[in-house]
Every structure is written in C-alpha cells, then in structure tokens.
From TrEMBL:
PANTHER family associated with the record: 2-SUCCINYL-6-HYDROXY-2,4-CYCLOHEXADIENE-1-CARBOXYLATE SYNTHASE (PTHR43248), TRIPEPTIDYL AMINOPEPTIDASE (PTHR43248:SF29)
Signal peptide positions (record): 1-28
Pfam families according to UniProt: Abhydrolase_4
Name this protein carries in UniProt: Alpha/beta hydrolase
The species this protein was found in: Streptomyces laculatispora
Length: 529
C-alpha cells in the first residue's frame, strides 16, 4: 500500500486551469428518451421548501422483470433553470444509508446556479427506510453488550453466538429477499430510476459505499453515464473482507490523531500534553466502564461505538473530548451517556441500516467461513491497532455464517466513461487513501482531487471551498482537472481542525446539527458505511 504521509507531489499552480470538458448540456444527450413516468407530490420541509416525493417499482429479481416487485422511495428538488442538465441522483453510502434527505441537502449546498440546473433526486435503496425496510433483529445493539475484545475463549464464543444468531434470524425472516439485497441489484435499480425520469443518461454523486455503487452502475451501463462524482472511495479490489481490515488500521491512526488533538488542548481537557498519555487515559476509561457501565448504558462496546464517529468527522471531537475529560477527571457519567445517545446509540433506523449493511456485504462477495481466519486476523490487527479491530470483526461476523451464497465482486475497471471526478482525503479512515488511488487507476480518464492532510470521510459540501469549486465546475460545465503525471490531478488544503467549544457551548449538551454543514452531511452519511 502507498504510505499516506508524503504521498503527494506538487501538481503545479496551473493545475486548476488544466481541464477536460465533457459535452455541454446541448450535446450530452440529456433529452428525454421517453416521457417521465413518475408522479411527484409535495412533501416540503422547513429546510427544503420545494421538496417533492414519489416512488417507483423495480423488479425484485432483475433477471425476472415480470416477477415480484420492490418499491423504491424517492425525493426530488426540481430544477428551476432554463438550462436543464437532467437528474442528479445522490447517495450517502452505507450500505444501508437512507438517501431521502440527501436531495434537499445537496440542492441547498451546491451553488444556487448549479443546483438550479438539475433535478436533485434522493432515494432509499432496496431494503432501506421507506423502500421496504429490513430489520433482522430489532434492538440487536441495545446496551449493555458484551465487550468486543475477548479475554477468553468463552468471551469470544458469546460474541460468536450473537453474530451467528443474527445471520440465522435474518435468513429465517427474509428468505425470499436476501438473495436480492446486493450492490448489483441496487445498481440496476438506479437504471430503473433513470428510465422513470425519462432521461437518456444519469448524473450521480455518491459518498463512501455510494462510490462503489456508482462504479458498479458505470460498469453495467457505461453508455448511460453523463457525470459521475465519487467522494471518499471504496477500494474495489478489497470487497469486502480486506477493505474492513484496512479500515481497522486506518481508524486506529485516526483515533490517535484525536488523542493528539486532545493533548494539544491540555489546558482545556486536563488529560496531559503527551498523546500517548491521553490515549492511555482513554483505555483506562474503557476498562472502567467495562467493569461498571456508565449510567448502566455505556460499557466497553458502547464506548467504542460512541467514539468511532470521531474517526469519520473531526467536528465531533470537541463533544467527545468533553465527555472523555468529564469522566476521567470528574467521574461525570452523564456527559458520557449523552455522548453515547448522540453518537453511539442505535434506534430503529440504525437497526434497519445494519440489517441492510450485512445483507449487502455478505451477499456481494466471499467471506472466510473458517472462524480461525477471522480470529487470527483480528488479533494480528489488534496487536498494532487495537481501537477498532475486534469491534469491526463482530460487526461483520454474521458474514461468516450468512445463509445466502455469495456473489463475485464486480470488476469495475472501465475505459468507456466520460470524465469522472473523484475526491479523497489522505487520512480518511473509513475509505483509506489507497482505495481512492486504486479506483482512479481503474476508471481510465478519471480525475482525482485530494484533500491533503484531511481525515474526514465525505469531503465535498462539507466546508472546503477549494474542493467544492471543483465539484461545482464539473457539475456546471463538465470540467475536470488534470495533473502533470502521477496519480493526483489537483490538491486542496484540508479544512482546519476544530477548536474546543468555549463559554456556554462548552457546557451545552451535544445535539445533532451543532457542527454546521459538515455535521449535517456526516449525520446523513452515518457511520461504518
């Protein structure tokens, strides 16, 4: 793998002006190939006053188009400009993420003149939310769960049995659906949506797992892709077991970056000035809540879940650091419980998301069936990167006993596409940098824009003006940057790390949306996807 540090070279001050253009709207084949069949109704919200809702029917089995159907829920912010560039489908990732709120967010976050040229369409993929939601085991993640890190074979067996029972319950509850909850089926659903809009070609913006979904769509239907934006890219060569092992190392590195940030503000958090000292305090806190769960809710596994979102988005660091310091310095369990309820607790939507996550990932590709492979890999990673190794193992462990035979991953390599625009942060933990470079190489003619030193997952429309300009230029005019050799076509500086909250904000309870636009985006992207 490429080392994240020092991987970028200077691409030159002129790189922003080195662009390739895809055809303009007048020549890009955006005209309708047939009349649109969707019936849109008003479903406006305070934040999205022009939002509309609809649904479309798709075959459960795309190889049997006249058979059983699934209903896909859609939202739309319609175009208002005379220049119409067609539908822009947006997806937050997952698998298992609901995309209905994404339409309003993307339309509001893009420059008005750009958003006005598109019908921005969000959707719940099959099995998600309003698209016939799966819920294999309600309240599966309710506290207090067994510690993810086994101290004995008995501890390991307890979690092994939980994962096995989840897989069995899912197979028993949805035997007719599970064979069709997979990425290829979801990609074919995208084409059903495209046809229903009446468009000949599709525009698409996908984050996280949504980059793999978009890449698979492009492989299946290269002639139907108009513009394709992929942000925080899944490594298509590691689907999915190897990709998860890569995540384990990257999240540990990102957790250490958080520890270093806490140490930087030692006068605020009083946990020490040495990152290693701060990290040791965090693991002592973990050991303490394992013995005596905070508020009878936050044990060791719940603590892991609470702090994991900090690896996705550094805007959460001040809230997490305050809860961490409050517990260590003052035995304040309430702040830790509030942070858990904000970041770690799993509600019915989370149950649905996890059910779809497992259904898709376990079906998409082969996973080891020999538990010794999982155990050995988990301990190997844990020795060097303990933060997430075992918790991520158990999160994916149902795949070791999944009741549906796996498919083969799609080879997404493609040389038939118009210019594709990729975004990637160098220190992204959920989709490590190397995956972005790999996908860039797989999609011939694509352009890779990198946020140097950035560690957030999902970087466009999150407050970085440099990245957002490349996105807006591409959606408006089809232009993409090209570097002077190598893997990187353009570089943007990272957004600054947050500072500790001050005054009343420092004492306020954590709340959704308090982190601004970046927090709004990352709330929709969710965690683990």
């Amino acid at each position: 793998m490429t080392n994240r540090s020092g991987i970028l070279f200077a691409v030159g001050a002129t790189v922003a002006g080195l662009v390739t253009a895809v055809p303009s709207p007048a020549t890009a084949g955006t005209g309708a190939q047939r009349a649109a069949s969707l019936k849109w109704t008003d479903c406006a919200t305070k934040s999205s006053p022009t939002l509309q809702c609809s649904s479309v029917s798709a075959p459960l089995d795309h190889d049997d188009p006249s058979g059983r159907k699934v209903t896909l829920a859609l939202t739309r912010v319609p175009h208002t400009s005379k220049t119409f560039q067609g539908p822009l489908l947006v997806n937050p990732g997952g698998p298992g993420g609901s995309g209905l709120s994404m339409a309003g967010f993307v339309a509001a976050s893009l420059p008005k003149g750009v958003a006005a040229q598109y019908d921005v369409i969000g959707f719940d993929p099959r099995g998600v939310g309003k698209s016939q939601a799966l819920d294999c085991v309600p309240k599966y993640s309710d506290p207090v769960r067994p510690d993810s890190v086994p101290q004995s074979l008995r501890d390991e067996q307890i979690n092994r049995d939980r994962a096995r029972s989840f897989a069995a319950a899912c197979g028993k509850k949805y035997p007719d659906l599970l064979p069709y909850i997979d990425t290829v089926s979801a990609a074919k659903d995208l084409d059903v949506i495209r046809r229903a809009t009446g468009a000949a070609k599709l525009n698409y913006l996908g984050y996280s797992y949504g980059t793999y979904l978009g890449s698979v769509y492009a492989k299946l239907f290269p002639d139907r892709v108009r513009r394709l934006v992929l942000d925080s890219n899944v490594d298509p060569t590691g689907i999915w077991y190897d990709d998860n092992l890569s995540q384990d190392y990257a999240f540990d590195t990102r957790h250490k970056a958080f520890m270093a940030w806490v140490a930087k503000y030692r006068s605020t958090y009083e946990l020490g000035s040495d990152p290693a000292q701060v990290e040791a305090a965090w693991y002592r806190m973990r050991a303490a809540v394992k013995k005596h769960p905070a508020g009878r809710k936050v044990g060791a596994s719940e603590l892991d879940d609470t702090f994991l979102p900090g690896g996705y988005y550094n805007g959460y660091w001040p809230v997490l650091a305050r809860a961490f310091a409050g517990y260590v310095n003052h035995k304040d369990e309430k702040a830790l419980v509030k942070a858990y309820e904000r970041f770690g607790a799993v509600d019915a939507q989370g149950d649905n998301g996890y059910s779809v996550y497992t259904a898709v990932q376990c079906r998409d590709a082969q996973w080891p069936r020999d538990w010794n492979v999982w155990r050995n890999d988990a301990w190997k990673v844990h020795t060097k990167a303990p933060f997430m190794a075992w918790s991520n193992t158990w999160y994916n462990a149902p795949c070791a006993d999944w009741p549906v035979e796996p498919l083969n991953p799609v080879r997404v390599s493609n040389h038939e596409l118009p210019p594709v625009l990729l975004f990637q942060a160098t220190d992204d933990a959920a989709t490590p940098y190397e995956g972005g470079v790999t996908l860039h190489r797989e999609l011939r003619g694509s352009s890779l824009v990198v946020e140097q030193g950035g560690g957030n997952h999902g970087v466009t429309l999150s407050g970085n003006a440099c990245l957002d300009k490349y996105l807006a230029d591409y959606l408006a005019k089809g232009t993409v940057p090209h570097g002077e050799g190598g893997d990187v076509d353009a570089v943007c500086a990272k957004t600054p790390d947050p500072k500790p909250a001050a005054g009343k904000a420092a004492k306020a309870a954590p709340r959704a949306g308090a982190e601004g636009r970046g927090g709004a985006l990352h709330g929709m992207l969710g965690f683990r996807g």
